[in-house]
Amino acid sequence: MTDEQTSLQKQATQFLNDEYFDSAVYTALSDVERNEQRKQLLRTLAESEHAHYRFWKDIAKREAKPVRAPVVRLLIVMRKVAGLMFTMKFLELHERDVVNEYKQWLTRLDDSQRERLTSILKDEEEHEKYFMSQVDEAIVRYIGFVALGLSDAIIEITGVHAGFLGVMGSTLVAGIAGLVVGFAASISMGVAAYLKAKSEVRKSPITSASITSASYLVSVIILAAPYFLTGSMFIAFSVSVTFAILMSVGFTFYVSVVNETNFKREVIENTSLLIGTAIATYFFGDLLGAIFGVRGALG
Is 298 a member of any domain? Predict the structure, then answer.
């Protein structure tokens, strides 16, 4: 066997392993799915992926490696925590590259195999995306309101903490200020979400307001916690900003997968806004403290 043939054999083996893995995961997800419509969609996807596996099995002339049970269980947990849409799209993250690699095989196959691969490409590019679009989950419908509460809280409350540290130089004052401002802002954001949802179809204004307020308030509590655990400005601010960045990165990843947006660009943009806001508000607070002579008065 030549080096080229060995390389093609290795690539075909990777394809059949990937398709077999996806088929096994979709089957496992369908087994635990309670919604009958989603269960049928998952079964259809599993059958589609298994047909793709059989094609590459004929090419590679070997069986797929067994799917590890812990990995499948982890993906089932992901489905329960993050939702079916996120889990499905997470599994399909590599699809764009796979489609391009599949297309390169069209010139290497005979007419019958080429026809089968063309059908597989159609499944990958059209049918599977259509099936995913049929998944209707509340978590996806309301994700915009989670983003509204979470992103606004991360930027605003980090700025409040930094500003009060600049004015007072007291971690306790900064923490209390963050909670007070955050509580008021969570109510304000909830009202804004309520009014916004009234003009949108299939979204409950009360649910939208509750989700926005809750995500805002939870973020506020997490960001404020370090200021009550230490008197060191540097440690409290560093830990709080780290929490803010981690929450921002985690949620940005979730949204980028569901909405198929550029994760790296969004992370860089959000992190830059967060850090820029913190620096600007700290120095503004420091300036106000110096002008009015209150810096450290309550520290």
Answer: no
Contact of 132 with 89, CB cutoff 8 Å: yes
Per-residue pLDDT of the chain (299 residues; tens, 9 = 90+): 565 567 778 888 999 999 999 999 999 999 999 889 889 989 998 999 999 999 999 988 889 999 999 999 999 999 988 888 888 888 888 776 788 888 889 888 888 899 999 999 888 777 667 776 777 777 777 787 787 788 888 888 888 888 877 777 788 888 898 899 989 989 998 898 888 888 777 678 898 889 889 998 999 999 999 999 988 888 988 899 899 999 889 888 988 888 888 888 888 988 888 888 888 888 887 787 778 766 554 44
Final residue in a domain of this structure, among 85, 105, 136: 136
Contact 214, 149 (CB under 8 A): yes
List the structure tokens of 258: 């569901």
What does the DSSP assignment read for 38-69?
HHHHHHHHHHHHHHHHHHHHHHHTSPPPPPPH
- The alpha carbon of residue 115 and the mean position of all alpha carbons in its chain are separated, in whole angstroms, by 36
Of 138, 134, 2, 112, nearest to 55 by C-alpha is 112
- CATH code of residue 44: 1.20.1260
* Whole-angstrom distance, CA of residue 145 vs CA of residue 217: 13
Is residue 51 in a domain?
yes
- Positive or negative: CA dihedral 228, 232, 236, 237: positive
Q: How many distinct structural domains can be found in the chain?
A: 2
